[in-house]
Amino acid sequence: MEDRKGYKKLKVWGKAHAFAVEIYRISNKFPKEELYGLTSQIRRAAFSISLNIVEGHASNSKKEFLSFLNITNRSLVETEYLLEVVKELNFINELEYQKLEKMRSEVGAMLNTFSKSLKSLTL
């Protein structure tokens, strides 16, 4: 497609990256015994969102890029569930949950719009 670092120009990537970094920061306070459990899982899921956008952007076709965006959406849903779990376990408070959920929701909306736009270019 374009220049390999062109993904940085994508607003959806910027939002996804900020979300992943915030997940990482907040998960630093999770219980130490969860380091290889929920802490690791939520971090991997959150970073998978931005990583799949990067990887898809580097693909050779729009169809392949859309496939990566589909994986991105699945990671977004996984993160949604994990946020609910860590909130229920009181690893995060209501304010942190609302902030993260708002960020996640914004990424989801942008991802949906971006995917639709890319699909319309492939028809």
Distance between the termini: 17 Å
**C-alpha geometry:** elongated
Strand content: under 5%
What is the residue-mean pLDDT, rounded to a whole number?
Answer: 94
Structural class: mainly alpha
Oligomeric category: single chain
- The parts where pLDDT drops under 50 for at least 5 residues are none
Order of helices and strands: HHHH
Number of domains: 1
At CATH level 2, the architecture is: Up-down Bundle
Compute the gyration radius: what is it? 15 Å
Helix content: over 70%
Report the top-level CATH class: Mainly Alpha
Give an account of the 3D structure.
With 123 residues, this protein is an all-alpha fold. The chain has one domain: de novo design (two linked rop proteins) (Up-down Bundle). The chain contains four helices and no strands. The longest helix has 29 residues, at 94-122. It is elongated. The two termini are 17 Å apart. The mean pLDDT is 94.
Briefly, what is this?
The chain is an all-alpha fold and 123 residues long. It has one domain: de novo design (two linked rop proteins) (Up-down Bundle). 76% of the residues lie in helices and 0% in strands.
Task: Write the topology of this structure.
Layout: H1 11-27, H2 38-57, H3 62-88, H4 94-122
Helix pairs in contact: 1-2, 1-4, 2-3, 3-4
Which terms summarize this structure?
4 helices; de novo design (two linked rop proteins); mainly alpha; 123 residues; elongated
